[in-house]
């Protein structure tokens, strides 16, 4: 889902929660498609739905990680900056937003490498302009420097990547990568999964499908990535109404507005 300020508010809170406490993320489950949208709270992080503007808000705070030395002595609490790999296929506005959020201090991470299947895309150009290494994947005959799935895993490990963020990457993530980074690959999809997800559901096609179905609600979903399109465990969602006579562009704008508010 391409947008200029993706990592503000809802998204940055969710990503920070994940990368600082990946063993026990605290997010709500998916809402149902009905007049009353309900959420089940998981673990200890409280959420609420404001009926006036359909905005999901978090009232919790993150706990700092406590590291323990080899001899068992407790060290002071600290939050290590996680090393991130970002995957893109297009203009890279999501990628730029992630990078800007890191520079602004709202995301506690460091982008150490960009992965793309399109070496000339805007995301790759932005990475090169900001001295971020660019990796080509998957392997392509016309690109001798492109990597196989196994070589990609090896290369990401050399960069000591902790988490992978998909920022408008339109290729299926290979099983080798999913197995190498369990519960460590994160995607943002522009519908309330599991509805309107899967192969071919991306960009404006998602919003067109939502309107055609007659659904009353839509919104973005943050989820873990598995070996299939948009089927990984849902971590967080924000709900927006689908209005009468909506166009796909109008609904897309409303989804983005709710994400960034």
Mean pLDDT: 75
The strand line-up of the biggest sheet is 5-4-3-6-7-9-10
Q: What overall geometry do the principal axes of the alpha carbons give?
A: globular
**Beta content:** 15-25%
Straight-line N-to-C gap:
16 Å
Name given to the CATH homologous superfamily: Formyl transferase, N-terminal domain
Structural class: alpha/beta
Which residue ranges are poorly predicted, with pLDDT under 50 across at least 5 consecutive positions?
1-9, 25-78
Quaternary state, please? single chain
Helix count equals: 7
CATH topology: Rossmann fold
Following the backbone from N to C, one meets helices and strands in this order, namely HEEEHEHEHEHEHEEEEH
3D structure, described in words:
- The chain has 261 residues and is an alpha/beta fold.
- The chain has one domain: Formyl transferase, N-terminal domain (Rossmann fold).
- 26% of the residues lie in helices and 18% in strands.
- The protein is built from 7 helices and 11 strands.
- The strands form 3 sheets. The protein has a 7-stranded mixed beta sheet.
- The N terminus is likely disordered.
């Amino acid at each position: 889902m391409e947008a200029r300020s993706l990592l503000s508010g809802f998204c940055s809170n969710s990503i920070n929660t994940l990368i600082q406490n990946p063993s026990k993320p605290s997010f709500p489950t998916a809402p149902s498609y009905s007049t009353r949208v309900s959420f089940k709270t998981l673990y200890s992080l409280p959420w609420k739905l404001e009926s006036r503007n359909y905005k999901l808000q978090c009232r919790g705070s993150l706990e700092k990680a406590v590291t323990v030395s080899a001899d068992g002595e407790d060290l002071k609490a600290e939050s290590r900056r996680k090393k991130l790999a970002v995957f893109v296929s297009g203009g890279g506005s999501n990628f730029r937003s992630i990078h800007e959020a890191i520079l602004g201090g709202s995301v506690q991470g460091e982008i150490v490498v960009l992965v793309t299947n399109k070496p000339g895309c805007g995301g790759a150009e932005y990475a090169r302009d900001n001295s971020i290494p660019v990796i080509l994947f998957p392997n392509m005959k016309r690109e001798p420097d492109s990597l196989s799935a196994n070589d990609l895993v090896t290369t990401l490990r050399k960069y000591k990547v902790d988490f992978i963020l998909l920022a408008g990457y339109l290729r299926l993530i290979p099983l080798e990568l999913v197995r190498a980074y369990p519960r460590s690959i994160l995607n943002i999809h522009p519908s309330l999964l599991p509805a309107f997800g899967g192969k071919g559901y991306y960009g404006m096609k998602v919003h067109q499908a939502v309107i055609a179905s007659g659904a009353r609600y839509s919104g973005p979903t943050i989820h873990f990535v598995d070996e299939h399109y948009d089927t990984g465990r849902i971590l967080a969602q924000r709900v927006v109404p689908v209005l009468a006579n909506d166009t796909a562009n109008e609904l897309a704008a409303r989804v983005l507005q709710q994400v960034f508010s």
